[in-house]
Amino acid sequence: MSKFLKALSLGTLIATLPLLAATAHAGDAEKGEKVFKKCTACHAVGEGAKNKVGPELNEVFGRTAGSLEDYKYSKAMIDAGSGGLVWDETTLTTYLTKPKDMVKGTKMAFAGLKKQEDLENVIAYLATFSSAAAPADQQSAAEPAAEETETASADTAVEAPAVPVSETRDGGVFGLGRAATEDEVAAWDIDIRPDGTGLPEGSGTVADGEVLFTENCAVCHGDFGEGVGRWPVLAGGQDTLTEERPEKTIGSYWPYLSTVYDYVRRAMPYGNARSLSDDDVYALTAYLLYLNDLVEDEDFELSKDNFQEIRLPNEENFIADDRAEEPHYAAKAEPCMSDCKDSAVEITMRARILDVTPGSVDDDEASGMGGVD
Amino acid sequence: MTDKTISKTPGLSRRSLLKAGFAAGAVAGTAGAARAAGDPLITEIQDWNRYLGDGVQARPYGVPSEFEAHVVRRDVEWLTASTESSVNFTPLHELDGIITPNGLCFERHHGGIADINPADHRLMINGLVDTPLVFTMEDLKRFPRENRVYFLECAANSGMEWRGSQLNGCQYTHGMVHCVMYTGVPLKLILEEAGLKTNGKWVMPEGADASAMTRSIPIEKALDDCLVAFKMNGEALRPEQGYPLRLVVPGWEGNMWVKWLRRIEVGDEPWHQREETSKYTDLLENGKARRFTWVMDPKSVITSPSPQAPISHGKGPMVISGVAWSGNGRIKRVDVSLDGGRNWKTARLDGPSLSKAMHRFYLDIDWDGSDMLLQSRAMDEHGFFQPTKNELRAARGENSIYHNNGIQTWHVKADGMVENVEVS
To answer: In this protein, which residues make up the domain named Cytochrome c (chain A) (predicted)?
Structure first.
């Protein structure tokens, strides 16, 4: 925390103490830390927290909405701040219940927290990083402590899952496990294959997809799938695979459209997986085709019925693993042991020329080439 | 009496040893009174020699000495957009032997570390089986189990070095690998428990994490040596390694070793999931891309000396130490060159030699203090040799990202400092 904030908070702390004292007990900061994992893809809080996709959340209590100077907010959020929105327990509760209802046009893709206790807990957690919201345990340590312990133990009793009983069944070799119900299999088996196996009923249009994409995906992938920072580029890059810097996108590289549907449905939006309906995923898939110029009509509707008609352009360019046929492997010859090179060996490249090793002098600015995927 | 005579004297009594100790103590005592000459660490009594240390249970789960605090996994911030879908690296330069300590095994996540109570964990087997089944962790621990030591290498290990030497340290160039002993149930037993249908040719493991990781694996591999593991190095899997359950796919790329394993589907065709189409496929210079490049090729690296582990002692006797591994089986031989690949000597393999596990090699040399261009070259039991980086580039171009097992060169300078270089 900066000295300025510390000095500032002393004044506000006294003013807000009575008000917060009554409510700050509602949530459990420790449990809130777990809930906050839903947010960490975009937000950081705590020592050294920096802006990520979303603004850092230190001292968020008492902060005017849209007011961090080094973060690029949506216009909607800046307007809300100008209109007098200041973050506190009440406003955060409303916002985190359904962000887009409170601030129409916010960049935050997160749909909202459904459970009241998650809301209370995560707000209690954030409060521990805000001097304007005095942590509950520092206000009146003695009196509510007993009460808290009681609640905590009651909660644990409810939450602790009973250890499942392991029984044997008829059939099988060992008779271990139990038969899965149809509903259980349906809940987890959501994979789609290139032959269309697994596609659910439903449909969605390019136009619908554009709205969904702007709300849920553009914050990382960019409005046109161009990718923000190091987040994946989804569109463009056609005819770049043989260039020095190939751009591997859905349109330029991915072999099958089924993979797009499958992946968006199982893992996107990042940090809020499984929150899209089957129709939403059809619409987003249609929009990704549109961004890649693979369909041109905004009214185009992708559905289970026409899904198989779409082929991605790079499908034919995938080949089997033939590493063993490469000259250095195929020969399997005993390698040379002495006088293997005609002249003295010379150094042709040094890591130091472009030192991007963490911990090297200016690694803050250094950015190397390539990646892990 | 010298150390040598003590160790060589058979039947030396405890009494005579005590006497010898007493005599030595008396000498030190006399010298101490007259201010001893020599290393004060020896001539002066140290705190740890006088005062009591911590008792048992000071650290119920033991941790390394505070003097080893620098031996940690490290990441490269510019590599990825967020830490939840990112990677860090094993500090290979600080380790010896063939086993990686659990807390130092590199991490690679696609949706952060899933936090799962084992009582809440389920493993489902479905698809082309007679009876789709659900197992609890308790159920799985009632199957016959095995212990196996395997290396796990990310297919992208050394992926940042395709265009040339870039990172100074084997932690960064080669640290997406670890080797531990797994305890688990052969996948074969679990699949057979559900009853495999004859048209079941592929399996697809799936993770319970926020990326719901999936990969297609041919049934031959699934029935051969895959394990459904719940322990590593004798204790429960670490959360970042898939607690409470992960798949072990020996010798094959790390991405297939699905963590937080919750489901295995049996099918007649591969699924072509995201991590086997848009990722983990190897783009070649001609624009074609190899897919299903599962096996990790023979590879080795000298871990010391290396850029993070320079030579501090000057010329004279020293140990060149490194690791080698191959997804094809055992390492048969490792050659080391001191002159950038002109001349090679066969190194000494030490420690257990296990199939698809890390191997430790040493070359004991008398360093003359001049520059060295150190290289190591592994050969596996099937006769596959580690290629040079330029041989790989000639065959594939520079955009493959994955499966870079080219020979690494370290430039050791006269002052003992080491740099990552490439040579003619």
So the answer is: 27-130, 204-292
